[in-house]
Design goal:
mainly beta, Porin, 8-stranded antiparallel β-barrel, two-stranded antiparallel sheet, 0% helix, signal
């Protein structure tokens, strides 16, 4: 397996001493996997009394569990900057995404791994780790988890169809 690292390429054409253009290589990953999200269920009930012909008892119950899902995440790496588009099951109603993309905070882009935290909203921060040797992505917080296998998307080639 060949590991391709993002390389920042600066192209500077100088006209009269002024830089004209800069270009930066971006690595794009497609990560497919599965996870689970925290889910609460509330049920209400009434008990009917045949003698009085009325409802006389009310019951309420609440349960919390994890709901499994399959999904896809997108990752873009440009130099030391990383942004991630998470599966829609993980996306909170109120979130801090910009156009569906979250910026990886405290990003560390090393030769063997990429780590950081995603601030999904005011109370939910997920830890993210991408193993650059195996392609394994792990996203975890108290509210959700997601494990996926990432493959590099060749953006310099033409359309597949």
């Amino acid at each position: 397996m060949t590991v391709i690292r993002p390389i920042a390429v600066a192209i500077a054409l100088t006209i009269s001493g002024a830089p004209v253009a800069y270009a930066q290589a971006t690595t794009t990953l497609l990560c497919q996997g599965s996870g689970s999200v925290l889910e609460s269920q509330v049920s209400n009930g009434m008990e009917y009394d045949n003698k009085t012909h009325s409802y006389n008892k009310s019951t309420n119950s609440s349960t919390t569990g994890r709901r499994p899902f399959n999904g896809t995440a997108n990752v873009e790496i440009a130099g030391g900057s990383v942004r991630i588009r998470v599966p829609h099951e993980i996306m909170p109603e109120i979130n801090s995404a910009r156009d569906g993309w979250f910026t990886l905070n405290e990003a560390f882009v090393g030769e063997r791994e990429i780590t950081g935290t995603l601030r999904l909203n005011m109370v939910n921060r997920a830890k993210v780790r991408i193993d650059r040797m195996t392609g394994q992505l792990t996203l975890a917080s108290g509210f959700e988890d997601f494990d996926a296998t990432c493959t590099k998307v060749e953006t310099n080639t033409g359309p597949k169809f």
